[in-house]
């Protein structure tokens, strides 16, 4: 089994998004979601939220789009596209900031925006589950929870220097 298949990702040769999944934070068990749901506009915060609290799971589904980024020998970059917004938005760093603590938002998908491009920085097995750490191409920082591993539901997702904390690890579930 390939590394991409192991962590639930599609091959870079596949076009656009072919499947959607929830991304669960390893520390809290909450999912990556759009604040305001499917009606949220560009710039809406990306937060963590209990999966059972959702009445419209489209808000919490993400797909990996490899079709627009060139693959290089060191990394494979992809966009994390949101399902609940007609697939027009992608996970982005607010204001293209390189600062630790900058919020993550949904933004109009643009294939050449490096702040919407992600790679897998690390793959580990925790309690029998494969979890990954996502790293932004434009900043080199990783997806994390504001407040760390004890962050409450509704806490914003931020970027932070890549480390070993469980708040930076994510499980994929279809």
Question: What would you say this structure looks like, in words?
Answer:
The structure is a single chain. This protein is mostly beta strands and 174 residues long. Helices cover 2% and strands 35% of the residues. The strands form five sheets. A four-stranded antiparallel sheet has the order 5-4-1-12, with no helix packed on it. It has a two-stranded antiparallel sheet with strand order 2-3. A hairpin with a 2-residue loop joins strand 8 and strand 9 (129-136). The two termini are 18 Å apart.
Keywords:
two-stranded antiparallel ribbon, 174 residues, single chain, mainly beta, 1 helix, four-stranded antiparallel beta sheet
Cα-to-Cα separation, first versus last residue: 18 Å
Give the radius of gyration: 14 Å
Major sheet characteristics? 4 strands, antiparallel
- Overall mean confidence score, pLDDT: 83
Spatially, the strands of the biggest sheet line up as 5-4-1-12
Tally of contiguous helical segments: 1
Apparent shape: globular
| SS elements, strand count | 12
Helix content: under 10%
- Low-confidence blocks of residues: 1-15
Relative strand content: 35-45%
- H-E order: HEEEEEEEEEEEE
Given helix and strand content, the structural type is: mainly beta
């Amino acid at each position: 089994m390939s590394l991409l298949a192991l962590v639930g990702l599609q091959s870079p040769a596949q076009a656009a998004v072919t499947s959607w999944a929830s991304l669960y934070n390893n520390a809290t068990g909450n999912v990556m979601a759009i604040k305001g749901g499917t009606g949220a506009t560009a710039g809406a915060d990306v937060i963590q939220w209990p999966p059972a609290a959702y009445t419209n799971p489209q808000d919490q589904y993400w797909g990996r789009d490899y079709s627009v980024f060139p693959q290089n020998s060191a990394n494979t970059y992809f966009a994390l596209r949101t399902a609940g917004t007609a697939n027009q938005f992608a996970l982005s760093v607010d204001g293209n900031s390189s600062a630790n603590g900058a919020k993550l938002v949904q933004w109009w998908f643009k294939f050449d925006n490096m702040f919407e491009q992600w790679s897998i920085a690390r793959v580990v097995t925790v309690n029998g589950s494969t979890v990954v750490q996502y790293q932004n191409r434009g900043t080199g920082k990783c997806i994390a929870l504001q407040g760390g591993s004890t962050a409450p539901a509704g806490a914003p997702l931020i970027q932070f220097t890549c480390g070993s904390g469980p708040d930076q690890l994510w499980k994929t579930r279809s």
